[in-house]
Amino acid sequence: MGSDNVIDESLARQISSLVDQISTIIVGKRPQIEDCVACLLAGGHLLIEDVPGVGKTTLAHALAVSLGLKFSRVQFTADLMPSDLIGVSVFERQRDSFVFHPGPVFAQVLLADEINRAGPKTQSALLEAMEEQQVSVDNETRALPAPFFVIATQNPSDQLGTYPLPESQLDRFLLRITLGYPDRASERALLAGADRRDLAQRLQPVMPPAALVAAQRAVQQVTASEALLDYLQALIAATRDGRWFVEGLSPRAGIAVLRVAKARALMAQRSYVAPDDVQAILPQAIAHRLHPVPGAGRGPIEQVRAMVEGVPIP
Length: 314
Known about the structure:
Elements: H1 9-25, H2 30-41, E1 46-49, H3 56-67, E2 71-75, H4 82-86, E3 87-92, E4 97-102, E5 109-113, H5 120-132, E6 134-137, E7 140-143, E8 149-154, H6 167-170, E9 175-177, H7 184-192, H8 196-201, H9 209-221, H10 226-240, H11 251-267, H12 275-286, H13 300-310
Parallel strand pairs: 1-8, 1-9, 2-5, 5-8
Antiparallel strand pairs: 3-4, 6-7
């Protein structure tokens, strides 16, 4: 790659092998898998909004196994309490003291399944852990493992028994993606093949945690030119001008877009962000943070794409 190469070839092969291996389990969904890996490399958290049964849990498990990371899954329900997630201190008579028993949040890859079925207090407990990378129990702060990556799944809001995440909490997720139903050929492979969860359990790590940390550091070294920043600012300004959306993006959201665009550039073995990186990730990075203006006739993702068409590249 010449001077464009920002990571050594070994690390590049490991990232590519990671995507390839997960693609053997979640068939026909390579773009979504690349988004998931980019989100992880960018140090963010992922929200998957979809109907049950399309492979969300299997994706999270395959990612954790492929990276050799500790995996934990929590099924969110209406009666799930914050202590069920974070952990609790229990008095042990033998020690004559309280002993903390960590909850499932003390994992490196945490699948928060059906997050919008839990009450607001439990949702907030998870989102605080995501933001702070730590939890506070009994006036004591406990750091979470590193890396710490949350994949939360959410049912469509029109399903019964859900508590939609408010905008301020949705903003904590770097990306929101949808897996969707498989195409015909991919579904035939699923029907004719072995159980995907069994296959995921038999995977071997292809990228050790140390390499993941190195890749996350390399993302920070990817550069963005003045022209690229001009383009990104033009897109951010377009979300705020009242033509496309009710309210525009916050500065934090703009920084998030740049971070995940850098991760995509890294995955392409480039040392700089290109406009294509921003365009490819923008709907997944900002649609869940925005509401189209009344009468737009489009959903948030389609509205973002229409906006991108209307903003020229410098």
